[in-house]
């Protein structure tokens, strides 16, 4: 099944309000969980600036972890809204497409920071 | 969202207090500062001179920066405390009354003026042997400090240029000494400044009743007149402030102007402010700078050395830092008192190598 078909089917199963609620709720919860981690890494970065590359790599993995957790929570919220959804729709497969695409973007942005923006910043 | 809240509510109730406590440790600022090692940045990334473009520079000349975390959170304080390279101290003096943003602004004034000082010293030195090199500069009195009681505090920014003050009996004062002499009769005087955008503005400053002072610190600098200077040069924008790159900036600019390569293929770094007469001045964060040099495996590291009897002389401090960190200073930590010392050292090194 192609992503387009999954996308259409997903929109048939859930209303805009249900989708928005799951996305927003997932984001808030994921943010609450990951905010301390991001702050800890940022503060480690300030104190151990000479380890900037290593810490930025950790930040890239943390950002990727954030999106994994966000999408997990979106799925959780949608299943809680419709407990039988997994029998009717390939929820995991649909979100796996989204997750892979998001992680690739995050990874590329991370590499840009590592090799372009950070060397530019410390002139 | 409500589903998630209901589902995780028992866990949220359990974790909310530790979570808020941990967040407090992460964000609440305390009146200390943490100095930690930073890195080295090649001066050529900051300043490029349009001269000798075909010359190949085999080594590198880099300035050294350290990280100063002003008003760290408890968490930053704790991790800084456990780092062997970091130093922690209480914020004191005027820094205590400045915001972090203002401290940063002052450091950028220091950086900008140190670049001009480096240009002046390097061009002057090179012009002795090369009549093509021309340097022109002018005096400028800049705002360097502000007391909390300064009237019009927010209007006047660090780095703004003082133009004049209308003194007693309408005398126009354009120097700091004239201000003191011609502000005896009244309390409020009219000052004219020029901001970073080049716009002039007029403010009335009133003396503080307790101190009898306006609450503003003005400092004399020399600013390069780019139009009358040859060869031309360009400066990149920087995120690193402070004057401590002065000596290395001067060496690098001199090397750009010189026909020979004074680096001899070595990775040269160091620290020290530069004065207009070529003398080197003290810097802070010696231990962190030594650690930065060590971590970056530099071949030569210049350190200000002005008075061996002074306990806080930078070179003496650096030797103690080397001992504390288990670093052998032999062969790479080089004491200098002036730009000429550093240049002589590099020139003699060339002789030794050949």
What key phrases describe this protein's structure?
heterodimer, A: 123 residues, mainly alpha, 5 helices, B: 354 residues, alpha+beta, Ribosomal Protein S5, domain 2, Pdz3 Domain, six-stranded mixed β-sheet, 9 helices, 16 strands, 34% helix, globular
In short:
Chain A has 123 residues and is mainly α.
Order of helices and strands of chain A: HHHHH
CATH topology heading of the largest domain in chain B = Ribosomal Protein S5, domain 2
What global shape of chain A is seen?
elongated
| CATH architecture label of the largest domain in chain B | 2-Layer Sandwich
How many strands in all of chain A?
0
Instruction: Give the tally of structural domains of chain A.
Output: 1
Succession of helices and strands of chain B: HEEEHEHHEEEHEEEEHEEEHEHEH
Count the beta strands of chain B: 16
**Whole-number count of domains of chain B:** 2
Number of helices of chain A: 5
């Amino acid at each position: 099944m192609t992503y387009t078909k999954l996308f259409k089917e997903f929109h048939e199963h859930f209303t805009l309000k249900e989708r928005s609620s799951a996305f927003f709720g997932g984001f808030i919860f994921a943010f609450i969980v990951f905010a301390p981690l991001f702050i800890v890494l940022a503060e480690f970065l300030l104190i151990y600036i000479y380890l900037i590359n290593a810490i930025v790599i950790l930040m890239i993995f943390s950002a990727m972890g954030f999106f994994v957790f966000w999408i997990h929570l979106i799925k959780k919220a949608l299943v809680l809204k419709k407990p039988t959804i997994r029998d009717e729709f390939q929820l995991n497969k649909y979100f796996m497409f989204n997750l892979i695409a998001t992680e690739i973007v995050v990874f590329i942005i991370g590499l840009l920071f590592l090799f372009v923006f950070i060397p530019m910043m410390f002139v | 969202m409500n589903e998630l809240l209901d589902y995780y509510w028992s866990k949220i109730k359990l974790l909310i207090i530790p979570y808020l406590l941990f967040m407090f440790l992460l964000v609440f600022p305390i009146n200390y500062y943490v100095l930690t090692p930073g890195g080295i940045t090649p001066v050529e990334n900051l300043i490029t001179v349009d001269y000798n473009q075909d010359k190949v520079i085999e080594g590198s000349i880099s300035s050294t920066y350290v990280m100063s975390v002003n008003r760290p959170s408890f968490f930053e304080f704790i991790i800084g405390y456990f780092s062997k390279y970091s130093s922690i101290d209480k914020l004191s003096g005027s820094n205590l009354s400045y915001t972090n943003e203002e401290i940063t602004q002052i450091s950028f004034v220091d950086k900008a003026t140190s670049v001009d000082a480096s240009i002046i010293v390097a061009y002057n030195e090179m012009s002795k042997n090369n009549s093509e090199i021309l340097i022109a500069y002018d005096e400028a009195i800049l705002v360097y400090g502000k007391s909390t009681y300064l009237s019009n505090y927010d209007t006047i920014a660090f780095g703004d240029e003082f133009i004049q003050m209308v003194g007693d009996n309408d005398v126009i004062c354009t120097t700091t000494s004239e201000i003191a002499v011609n502000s005896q009769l009244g309390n409020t005087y009219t000052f004219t400044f020029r901001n970073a955008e080049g716009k002039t503005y007029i403010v009335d400053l009133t003396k503080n009743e307790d101190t009898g002072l306006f609450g503003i610190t003005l400092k004399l600098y020399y600013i390069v007149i780019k139009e009358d200077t040859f060869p031309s040069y360009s400066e990149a924008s920087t995120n690193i402030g402070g004057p401590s790159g002065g000596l290395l900036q001067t060496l690098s600019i001199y090397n750009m102007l010189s026909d020979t390569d004074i680096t001899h293929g070595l990775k040269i770094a160091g620290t020290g402010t530069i004065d207009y007469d070529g003398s080197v001045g003290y810097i802070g964060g010696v231990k962190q700078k030594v650690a930065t040099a060590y971590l970056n495996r530099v071949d030569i590291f210049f350190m200000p050395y002005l008075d061996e009897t002074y306990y806080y002389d930078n070179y003496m401090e650096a030797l103690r830092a080397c001992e504390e960190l288990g670093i052998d200073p032999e062969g790479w930590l080089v004491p200098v008192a002036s730009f000429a010392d550093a240049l002589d050292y590099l020139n003699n090194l060339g002789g030794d190598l050949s």
